[in-house]
Specification:
With 146 residues, this protein is an alpha+beta fold. It contains six helices and five strands. It has a single domain, classed as CBS-domain (Roll), CATH 3.10.580.
Length: 146
């Protein structure tokens, strides 16, 4: 099964010059936790609800902060014609729950989430991806190791 068979196609994008408030309102309206960030028809980043809290609010940023200041600019993505098992393994390796989906001309055509995989016939791949995504990546110095 290929990514294009199960990805979410109706994807809303946002400009890096929009504000955190605009992103929060759009996420609330769409009931999503991530928005692709595009400029001049090219994907330049992703903004998640976690970015907004950790890089925004926790660092004293306000609602008028531009998305480009807190978005994740290093975008990991997949292609619509790739196989799900390959992408699920990649999601586990890079520890992400969602990937923008591009066509071979590098145009955004959708988003693939772990839930898309889990609700398809590829449940085993979703379980493997979740195991990889959930593994700890670092020890927080302020907390003693158990």
């Amino acid at each position: 099964m290929q990514v294009q068979d199960i990805m979410t196609r109706d994807v809303s994008i946002i400009s890096p010059d929009e504000t955190l408030k605009a992103a929060a309102l759009r996420m609330a309206q769409l009931d999503v936790g991530v928005l692709p960030v595009a400029e001049n028809e090219r994907l330049v980043g992703m903004i998640t609800d976690r970015d907004m809290v950790v890089r925004g609010l926790a660092e004293g940023q306000g609602p008028s902060t531009k998305i480009r200041e807190i978005m994740t600019p290093d975008v990991k993505y997949c292609f619509c014609d790739q196989e799900i098992d390959e992408i699920a393994e990649n999601m586990a390796d890079i520890q992400v729950r969602r990937l923008p989906v591009l066509d071979r001309d590098k145009r955004l055509v959708g988003i693939l989430s772990l839930s898309d995989i889990a609700t398809s016939d590829e449940v085993d791949q979703a379980a493997e991806a979740l195991c990889g995504i959930s593994r700890p990546i670092s020890v927080f110095p302020q907390y003693p190791a158990a």
